[in-house]
From TrEMBL:
Matching InterPro entries: ATPase_NBD, ROK, ROK_cs, WH-like_DNA-bd_sf, WH_DNA-bd_sf
Family (UniProt): Belongs to the ROK (NagC/XylR) family.
Protein name listed in UniProt: ROK family protein
Species for this entry: Streptomyces rectiviolaceus
Length: 512
């Protein structure tokens, strides 16, 4: 493996500086944990062993210091939890470093052909590779085991099939053997964009996750795919104009673009399979969003489902408290889940894993969902569904969740709103119980509107009714040890979604 002393040296300096800043704090601020998580993620993607080891050693020393320190026990326990989460990340990254085996594969052999096919299309199954190489699946398994041992590929499970992907070392081997052209040397900035039918929100971040600028535009798309792409490209250019360094880096391919939408996305291609909550505004289903945006902006582009993006951000910034088996659930107008299994995001056979918003929690004569079915979870517990239910019960015009929560304070309507919130919370609890029983995560990170998920019930009284019903119902319907799961809540807003989109782009595009 060839060395890249410049980036390693710079990254190592950043890690050492971050550790010194953390050491100087009696109570380490959350942003320090987030920055370190981004640095470790960056180093693990490039198999940068010196940096990962330095982070691991420094975090162990910090953890020992906080174990021995005096002071508020709750604060110290929280600090130790965050540090343990980062230590889990570095331990996992060190275990995933490629082996030191010397490689000598025949250029025309099946082993190199295996690598080349995976380089063309990440996530191929044994059966797909067997068909392309014209060998049986047993031979593919044998080759895969050899390449895994050499640190060139890694294997995940997608439904019932293996899914093969190249490691950074695998890409480097193919490049050094002149079997594929060298990839761009990496990225310095990322644009992250959260797209709604009626708005778009964006940020520009660097490798540490620092947000340089943000932008929000409230405007609906028209009915043309071409106009939609033009408007998104113009929005991205507006963000870049606010950060000249990122605009300059874009000229040499060192600025990436991540986009998240609330729909079924084939992540590998950036193709929108289905987006029922978006379909009235533009022909989203069948839109090659990633490819068209990349052509329009000139930026390497990644498109991801919103809940999947939040799961990756949760892993990066520590919202899952160091867990590698968790679900990130996004409660919005729709409801979705991103599933992390052993630190890997589960996309499913076609990218639709985690669509719990379309699990039926009412009977089949329940409310109609945007997907066309009836009784789906998001048709009962989504933010618009709560507003609609309050309107049905009160007879008052209730256009959105904010108006529904205003009525909670009224003497004659307050009880109706409480009932609607409890009903929605029970529905979400039933959906979460199904998720716990099927996926068996050790925790759920629930992202939603702060008035619904906040732990501060004095400031946000609606959360008391809603979250009490969620927690109680999910535990009542969960099976066996699924009842032991930890449910943590985090306020969700569009800028956080844009940051998640940027984090996805960093994870997949930065090969420096």
């Amino acid at each position: 493996m060839s060395e890249t002393p410049g980036p390693t040296c710079d990254r190592l300096s950043e890690v050492q500086a971050a550790l010194e800043e953390m050491k100087a704090e009696r109570i380490i601020p959350p942003q320090h944990f987030s920055s370190m998580a981004m640095l470790v993620t960056d180093a693990s993607l490039t198999a940068d062993e010196p940096v990962i080891q330095a982070a691991h050693d420094g975090l162990r020393r910090l953890y020992g210091h906080h174990v021995r320190a005096d002071g508020d026990q709750a604060e110290r326990a929280e600090q130790r939890g965050h540090l343990l989460g980062l230590l889990d990340m570095t331990t996992w990254a060190l275990r995933r470093l490629p082996s030191g085996l010397q490689l000598n594969f025949a250029p025309q052999g099946h082993t190199v052909s295996f690598l080349l096919e995976v380089a063309k299309e990440q996530g191929l199954s044994n059966e797909q590779l067997a068909g392309r190489l014209k060998v049986d699946a047993t031979e593919i398994s044998r080759i895969g085991r050899r390449l895994t041992a050499a640190g060139l590929v890694w294997k995940s499970r997608q439904w019932r099939h293996n899914a093969w992907s190249l490691t950074p070392r695998g890409t480097q081997y193919l490049e050094s053997a002149a079997l594929i052209p060298p990839a761009p040397s990496g990225i310095d900035y990322c644009v992250g964009v959260k797209v709604r039918p009626e708005s778009r929100t964006g940020v520009v971040t660097d490798a540490s996750g620092e947000v340089y600028t943000s932008l929000h535009i409230q405007a609906r798309f028209d009915g043309s795919q071409e106009k939609l792409i033009q408007e998104l490209a113009l929005f991205v250019r507006g963000l870049l104009d606010k950060v000249p360094a990122a605009a300059e880096a874009a000229k040499s391919g060192r600025t990436g673009l991540g986009v998240e939408i609330g729909g079924h996305v084939a992540t590998a291609s950036g193709y929108v399979v289905n987006a029922p909550n978006y379909a009235d505004d533009a022909p989203w289903p069948g839109l090659s969003l990633g490819e068209l945006l990349q052509k329009a902006t000139g930026l390497p582009t990644v498109v991801e489902n919103d809940a999947n993006a939040m799961a990756q951000l949760a892993l990066a910034v520590g919202d899952a408290d160091g867990s590698s088996d968790f679900a990130a659930v996004v409660l919005d107008k729709g409801i979705g889940a991103g599933l992390m299994v052993d630190g890997e995001l589960l996309h499913g056979a076609s990218g639709a894993a985690g669509e719990i918003g379309h699990v039926v929690v009412e009977n089949y004569q329940g409310h109609e969902c945007s997907c066309g079915n009836r009784g789906c979870l998001e048709s009962v517990a989504g933010s618009d569904a709560i507003a609609r239910r309050v309107q049905e019960m009160s007879g008052d015009p209730v256009p959105d969740l904010a108006r529904a929560l205003v009525l909670l304070k009224s003497e004659d309507r307050g009880k109706l709103v409480e009932e609607a919130l409890t009903e929605a919370g029970r529905a979400l609890g039933r959906g979460l119980a199904d998720l716990l029983n099927l996926a068996n995560p050790d925790r759920v990170v629930l992202y939603g509107p702060e008035p619904l998920v906040s732990e501060d019930h004095e400031r946000f009284p609606a959360a008391k009714f809603f979250m009490t019903a969620v927690r109680r119902t999910s535990m009542d319907h969960a099976f066996s040890t699924a009842r032991d799961v930890v449910i943590v809540t985090r306020p969700y807003e569009d800028e956080l979604g844009a940051r998640a989109a940027a984090a996805v782009a960093w994870n997949r595009l930065d090969q420096d």
